[in-house]
Amino acid sequence: MCSVGILLPQCLWLADFGGNLLGIQLLGLTGYMFEHRLPLFTRALSLFHGWLPLLLVWLLVRLGYDKRAWSAWTVLATGSVLVCYFFTPPAGAHLANPNIPINLKLVNWTGNFLAGAGETLVLLYLLLASGDLFLQKLVRVMPTLHDKKRAVEISREIRQNISNYLFSVSLINIGLGLVVSGGLYFMGVPNAAMWGILVAVLNFVPYFGPVAGVIVLATVGLLTFDTLWKGLLPPAWYLLLHLLEANLITPVLLGRRFTLNPVVIFVSLIFWTWLWGVPGALLSVPILVSIKIICDRVPAMSPVSELFSR
User: Fold this and answer.
1) Which of 89, 98, 173, 278 could form an SS bridge with 93, CB 3.0 to 4.6 Å?
2) pTM exceeding 0.85
3) Domain ranges of the chain
């Protein structure tokens, strides 16, 4: 399939690189390869363009051409164009270092993601190791006995409600993943269990998670089946189950206490994702629930609690 979309660009890159070796400027695709100010490792990352065209031609001769490749590559190319449009600088934009290829940002993003995951694990370990230390300090700074009791009650209520919330949401998402994977299995989608686990994990992230799940299953369906209507069955199945879960099952199981204003959830999701990345996206709703519980128990903050409610 990849041969359909990238064989010609790879050949053009190889021709341009050969021209630069001979001192002939052809297309300007490989000028950065001869920029001595760039680290050698950075330039070496692009050397796969040299052998990839040969591999693609060998694959076409050995395996033949699959008629599904054209439609599948069209879907992937459309997704790639959207990613480039939204996540790469526009033409003419000022860059800090214009000689560094944009695709190296993916390497930097991966490093940032791993660093954020490590920070999250360290913070989680420190919070678990501290036990009730922060609660004890909070009780100490409270001026009156009544305030001390209220602080302990609020802390226990937050812990109990967050536990109930996470347990209920985890149970709902596990059930959703099982039903989705079962449907995909009967449709003939390969690795149905893996896709069920993926959509279950994505469903923890409000709004963006289900959208990503639909896109992933649409890509899988179009790559698996020959006809368009069969390829759209997996995302349609997941979308139907998600709508049922979001509008019926979750409100019934969680009740009004955990039913939050969608606008507030979206703002919280954007803020915590910006502040803390993927862990922030997963923790945005639990943090919001904790704030709402505090507002429910403090009379002066009852208007904020009403604002957070649906």
Assistant:
1) 89
2) no
3) 2-68, 105-141, 144-255, 260-310
